[in-house]
Design brief:
The protein is an alpha/beta fold. The chain folds into two domains: 262 residues, Aldehyde Dehydrogenase, Chain A, domain 1 (3-Layer(aba) Sandwich); 182 residues, Aldehyde Dehydrogenase, Chain A, domain 2. The protein is built from 15 helices and 26 strands. The strands form eight sheets. It has a seven-stranded mixed sheet with strand order 16-19-20-15-14-22-23, with helices on both faces. A six-stranded mixed sheet has the order 11-10-9-12-13-25, with helices on both faces. A three-stranded antiparallel sheet has the order 7-8-26. A hairpin with a 5-residue loop joins β7 and β8. α2 packs across α6 and α4 packs parallel to α5. The longest helix has 22 residues. The chain is globular. The protein starts with a strand and ends in a 10-residue tail after the last strand. The model has no long low-confidence stretch (mean pLDDT 97). GO terms for molecular function: aldehyde dehydrogenase (NAD+) activity. Belongs to the aldehyde dehydrogenase family. It catalyses: an aldehyde + NAD(+) + H2O = a carboxylate + NADH + 2 H(+). Pathway: Mycotoxin biosynthesis.
Length: 500
Amino acid sequence: MATVTLTGVKGRQIQVPTTLFINNEFTPASTTETLTIENPSTGTPLATVSSASPADVDRAVHCATQALPAWKATPGAIRGTLLHKLADLIERDAEDLASLEALEGGLLYTDSMNMSMPQSISTLRYYAGWADKIDGKTLHLPDGGVGYTFREPLGVCAAIVPWNAPLMITIWKLAPALATGNCLIIKPSELTPLSALKLALLIREAGFPAGTVAILPGDGPKAGNALSSHPDIRKLSFTGSTVAGRAILHASASSNLKQISLELGGKGPSIVFSDCDLANALLWTRIGITANNGQICAAGSRIYVQRGIYDKFLAEYARLSKEEKPVIGDALDEKTTKGPVSSAAQLQKILGYVEEGKKRGVRVLFGGERIGEKGYFVQNTAFADVGQGEKMMREEIFGPVACIAPFDTEEEAIALANDSAHGLSSAIFTNDANRAHRVTAGIESGQVTVNAWSMLAANAPFGGVKESGFGRDMGEEALEGWTTVKVVKYNILPPAAAKL
C-alpha cells in the first residue's frame, strides 16, 4: 500500500494512503494521473495521490453493486453498531484527522478539533440510532383493503464533497446513506483528499463489508463527471458551487435520471434591528464572516443594519477588528487564530472582488490586503454602504469579506434579504420575539438563526432554497433523501365457499 507520512500536531507521524480505496483495498488508479496536494499555509507541495479515472469509477460501482444485496439485508441494529464503531475510531484519531484538515485545507487545527470532529462524531451516532428505526406506516384502503409502506435504500449512491470542511461534510452524507442500507462512493475534493483516505482506513478497521464504501480522489471533469453520469448510480449528493451543481443535474438528466441532492452556494444575510443586543450582534456577525476565513457556504456575507444604529454598528465593528490581534500563521499551530485560505486560486478570487470594490469606490471599513507572500493569507475585510447592485453584494465570494448596508423598515430588510439568487442561511438579531417570527416567516432561506449565526446540529436539517439547491443533509429529513418508499396493498378476499 503506497503511503505518505506527514507530521501532525505535537510532532505526530501520520501515515496516509495515497491510492484509491475500492472493495476495502487501497489500489492504484488505472492511469498514471495524480493530484498534487498543497499546504496552503506554506504554498508548498504536501503529497501526491492517485487520481481516479472513469474506469476506476466503473470498478468501484461494480464492487458496490456486488456488495449491495448483503448490506441491504444487514439488520439496522448491526449497521448502527458499525456507525458507532466508526465514531469511536474518529474520536480516537481526532488529532490526526484534524492535523490533516489543517495541512491540506488550511482549516485551523483548533477549529477542526472544536467543530469538525465533534460534528462528525455526533452525526455518526445520531444516524446509528436511526438505523433500526426506518419505519413505514399502515394504510386503511377503500373497500376494506389494507396496506403498508416501508422505506428501501436507493442502491449504489455517490457523494461529491468540498474542501472547506472535508471530514464533517463527508460524514453528513456517509452516515445517513449507510444507516439506510445504501453503498456509497465518495469523491473528495481534489484539494483535500488526505483526510478522506485516512477515514478509509477507519472504515475498514470498523468492519464495514468490502464494497460498502469506496473513496476515489479525482478531479471533477473525469471522476466527478463519471459519477454524475453513471447509469448504475441511483443517487448523487453534492456540496459545492452552483456552476458544478448545474452540470451534475444535466448529467443526471442525460443518463439515468438518478436522484440528486444539491447544497450549493450562499450569500447569507444578517439583519440587525435597532432593538437587538448590539454586543451579541457584533460578535455573531463577525463570526459569521470570519469563521474558516469566510469559506463556508452559510457565511453571513451580507449585513443589513437598521439605520438608527448603523453608524454605531460600523464604528464598533471597525473598533473590534482593529483591537483584535489575530495570531496569523500555520493552520496546524494550536496558537494560530487566523490561518490561510485554501489555495492560490481562492486567494486571487477573494482579492479580485476586493479590488473591484475599491475601483468602484465602495467604502473600505477595514482590511482588503493580502498578508505576506508565503502561503495564502488575506486580511479580514469589510465594506460599508454597499449598494444592492454591487457584484460583491450579489455573488458568493467565499472569503472573509463582509458587505454592510443600512435599512429603515422591517419590510425593507426582508426585501433586501430576499433580493438574491441564493437562499441557504440567514440570521436575525432582535429582542422582539414577534418581529423574529414575522421576519423568519418572510425570509427565503433554508435555515434562519435568531440572535446567532448558523448553529449546526446533527438533528437539524441543513440545505437551501432557490439557487442554493434542494435536498437536506442532517436531521430526520436526510433519511428521506437516501430511501425510496414502497407501498404494499392487500385486497382482502372473502372466505372460500365451503366444499360440499
